[in-house]
Amino acid sequence: MLKTFKKGGVHPHENKFSANSPIQPIDPPQKIFVPLSQSLGAPSKPVVKKGDEVKAGDILATGESFISSYLHSPVSGKIENIDDFIDVSGYRKPAIFIEVTGSEWNASVNLSDELKEDITLEGASIIQKVKEMGVVGLGGATFPTHVKLMIPQGKKAELLIINGVECEPYLTSDHRLMLEKPREIITGTRILMKALGVTRAIIGIENNKPDAINLLSKHASSYPGIEVCPLRVKYPQGGEKQLIQALTGREVPSGKLPIEVGCIVQNVGTAFAVYQAVQKNRPLVERVVTVTGTNVLHPSNFLVKIGTPVSALLEKAGWQPEKAGKVIAGGPMMGKALLNADVPIVKGTSGILVLNGKESLRPKVQPCIRCAQCVSACPMGLEPYYLARVSEVEKFDLAENGAILDCIECGSCQYICPSARPLLDHIRLGKLKVNQIIRSRNQ
Amino acid sequence: MNPSILYAVITLAVIGAGSGAILYWVASKFKVEEDPRIDTVAEALPQANCGGCGYAGCRNFAEAIVKTGSLDNLFCPVGGDEVMKRIASILGLEAPTMQPMIAVVRCNGSFQNSPSKFHYDGVKSCAFAHITFTGEGGCPFGCLGQGDCERACSFDAIHINPKTGLPEVNDKCTACGACVKACPRNIIEMRPKGKKDRRIFITCMNQEKGAIARKNCEAACIGCNKCVKECRFDAITVSNNLAYIDPHKCTLCRKCVEVCPTNCILEVNFPPRKRTTQSDSPAEITA
Fold it and tell me: What is the pLDDT of residues B243-275, one digit of tens each?
């Protein structure tokens, strides 16, 4: 019996169309734009100005406030402007526009593909390096990695968990990365272990990726602290709290961080980025993005420079715009529909999913029949029907008492609901309002 | 007759009388002294319990009036001057007067002016649509058209017009302010009803630069300052690329309406002009 988390969860169709498509690098177009706010926390502060010449790997913006990250130029070129662009929601956000002239790298970056396994840096300098190279969590939440590596006083980390679950349907970027860069990921894991001062690491991978499990187990066998653990396929196993429970049986207390139970979770993509940052001095300027969906003729995995517009990827993968209904950044469960295809790929974009017209529409909403399937599906043990209802009628005190802030927005409730009720939409709004109320109460 | 029935009747009668006496004693001993004026004032109020005065309901408002003993900053927008006069006479105070107000919708991003670029498939709630995206027309300041204001109104006074996708206020509006609070984009404003119900206001909230605002909506205020120059009464100010007409300074001369290049200044309930100018699309709204 394979391990998995205890409460709830659903199992949508996996639809991993692009699992056998190797990662192919994609050339950036003539013009790219790098948004200033790419990680959780404060937006980065630009250090370049209009007309500056930059090389790939040069710092574009710094992130010196506590939760913030550095940004680097993905290409060599000329800074055209620092202006607003229209983001995925249609709102205007600042970005650095670069006119691409080539792909000349900053001289300090080691460009060779040769594997470098000896870790020369020490704990604190690893964290500093990770910070300067702009590494953020690549699982989707884009929390700055260096902040996660700094253990708060009085707490102790004992276990590093590397998240190779990729439980979202359709997405295969982590899967391909594990198949193509296993030794780099293992080295990245060792670097993270050294930075945290832990002796044990578990790489959790769902059982629908047996090739990745075998490959990583083979390479991990020479390091006694690292083990690979296959997991039963269940969504949302890639959620931090669910993965910790699946692998260790520990439950993170409500409103607390994983460090409370001695765990730190990092994505495989992050482990690879850490390897590149620490061993190769290479900042995070590109990532693997899956372009997939029923609308796409060639579902593929691309190695994309940050700032490349989504439309360039869609064209390369052969999409059919006339049939497309929705273009989603991320997976089908937690992704966000794009308002236009010209938004850039950012550090948090793990996939682009294009759904055909009909299948992208929501089914007709019907009344709640109190079947409680959402309660059974909720991996956090909440009561989604109740939280959605109290948020809808604006009883935010009841929502707060119902632990609405524990919701991880995985969408299992909405997926399972036979009446197709928009549970998560209401809960999201409720979370926002409850957070506002708590903030105003603390002032 | 069976004596046991008689006993039962007598026992019940005694218990009843005894309990009654206790209840009477408790009621008189622990009586809550309440100012009788609260009831009279509450009866004078419209009993709409809309919350427009800032209190949960009409009775809470009556309590507040009687307790503070003054009518400063207390006003029932639904009842208006008439009700406030009646309350003032009950309490022997001076009645405050306030201009009659009405809600106006400060967006003209109808389907015609701001054509839909996207199809929104989510929950029918402006509050949720606002955190999700800019709206089907693409304007980040404009009306989302999901009808939160319509649902908030307890007077049947505001409705979404299916032809324009915008809310329209009718004369049932009591200026309770429920729609103003419900709108996540602060598009609805309380303005004085004006002489003969005539009003002039800017039907736009967009603070972006003119060229950007015009990309999404033909009727956007572009902050061109033409109306400011035209106004002889200093009633119009422009800040953040958006004009605002001060209703207290405006003399309803309609000069600004004529010069506005995007037709985003709306005049309501005016007689038609002598020389007919091009005031076509904004006239669809009768706010």
Answer: 999 999 999 988 999 999 999 999 988 888 775
Q: What mean pLDDT is predicted for residues A205-228?
A: 94
**Quick one: fold of A28-102?**
OB fold (Dihydrolipoamide Acetyltransferase, E2P) (2.40.50)
Instruction: Collect all residues of chain B within an 8 Å Cβ-Cβ radius of residue A426.
Output: 123, 125, 128
Instruction: Please tell me the distance in Å from A362's CA to the nearest CA on chain B.
Output: 7
- B36-91 CATH pick, 3.40.1280.10, 1.10.10.10, 1.10.630.10, 1.10.15.40: 1.10.15.40
From B123, B134, B135, residue closest to A422, measured CB to CB: B123
Domains A28-102 and A123-280 share a fold: no
Contacts of B208 in chain A (CB under 8 A): 92
DSSP state letters, A29-53:
-SEEEEES--SSSSPPEE---TT-E
Residue whose pair of structure tokens reads 């710094």 in the numeric block = A62
A71-80, A177-186, A395-404, B112-121: least confident range: B112-121
Class (C level, CATH) for A123-280: alpha beta
Q: Which class would CATH give B101-284?
A: alpha beta
pLDDT band for B283, please (50, 70, 90 cuts): very low
Predicted confidence (pLDDT) at residue B278 exceeds the cutoff of 80: no
For A396-440, the pLDDT digits (tens) are 999 999 999 999 999 999 999 999 999 999 999 999 999 999 999
pTM: 0.85
Torsion region of A8: left, alpha or beta (phi above 0 gives left; psi -120 to 50 gives alpha): left
Candidate from A339, A361, A426 with C-beta closest to B123: A426
| Closest-CA distance of chain A to residue B8, Å | 49
Residue B8: strand, helix, or coil: helix
DSSP A232-282: ---BTTTSHHHHHHHHH---PPTT--GGGGTEEEEEHHHHHHHHHHHHH--
**Domain A286-356 class in CATH:** alpha beta
| Domain spans, chain B | 36-91, 101-284
Fold match, B36-91 / B101-284:
no
Contact map slice: A 303-342 vs B, CB within 8 A: 339
